[in-house]
Predict the structure of Fucose permease.
Amino acid sequence: MNKAKWVEQPDGYLDKTPIIQFILVTILFALWAVAASLNDVLITQFKAVFSLSDFATAFVQSAFYGGYFIIAIPASIFIKKNSYKLGIIAGLAAFSLGCFLFFPASRLVTYQIFLFAIFVEAIGLSFLETSANAYSSLLGPRESATVRLNISQTMNAVGDIIGILLGKYLIFTDGNLKEEMAHMSKQAAEQYGQQALSRTLAPYKYVLIVLIVMIVLFAITKFPSGKPKIKENEKTATFGETIQYLLHRKRYWKGVGAQFLYMGVQTGVWSFTMRLALDMFPNFNERFVANFMLYSYICFFIGRFLASYLLSRYSETTVLTIYSFIGTLMILYITFIPNITAIYAAVGVSLVFGPCWPTIFARTLEIVDDKRHTETASAFIVMAIVGGAILPMFQGLLSDFTNMQFSFLLPTIEMAIVFLYFLGEHKYDKKNTPKKS
């Protein structure tokens, strides 16, 4: 067995990035994005088949991101006691189980069993995100941690595109499901709905095969520990000690709060873009409006690459302050302009989503200078994903009481607060960065 081609530093970072290991970890970002973008497809499909309100359709995201929230701390404890590698393998295994549950779900044809399958899937994804976000930033020199995480997060866009294509061609058809079922007898509509739900299984078959391959690859590949070296006579931090440590860091909790709100924005916009198009233009069908999500994810991909370039030339807070300000204006436009350009604004706003999550994550984790607390601190940031479970429910509720377009007022407000967070961080950096002589 060859010796490792990297040197682990005392703080857990490496002297250089191991390429194969970094690529494997980066692929994980695409895998959980496939699952997330398929949720946007499922929301549209479930809306028609189960005759759900917009509030009820948001339960898909609640089950998904709720699983993240519940499991993030147990996942961090597991990783702390074992390793990032074992955390990733456990996550891939649970993700596989969730995909497998779509087999009975597609045959039992009840909304609840689908939600349960999505929840189990999310348990695995919580392990993956808790592991991979921190691990990606650790797989190389400390000074390039944010850039590394942004590169890994670029694969989110690739996974989003793959997921929406799988949904478009394997789940959706050329007809408008809701309109077709409206002209059928009750029994015929039920049978047609069952056929539509049976198609939801198809994408998960392919995802399951990829997950099994990834489990094998991670099992046979050597990875660095990513753990800081414990000094002589120094004990590892207990969970209680970590909580005490974090409670005294207000900027850390501001970052967690910003992540919570940002996830509400991203999930709300992506969950309801297809619903917005169908609501504003009833002559559209599901397969056609899936194109809007495909274009959204392409914009997301382009925005990520553009952000990676800008972040290499300008300060991250400067870039993100501008991005989040533009995003606020674009979502405000979606809310109040009653024509097709509002749909294109919903597509285009994904250009500015790209760097938000990884930048907030990396900046917030960097505040934790005592790396004994990294795993738990990372878990709390991942738990902020629950914003994607809670806030879209309120958006759906607002839609039920008003209309789908006006419901975008909620993510407008959320994005405005994220803008204020980055503006505050920008001022902090200017105040605390030493001036060049």
Q: What stands out?
A: The radius of gyration is 22 Å. The chain has one domain: 19-226+238-428.
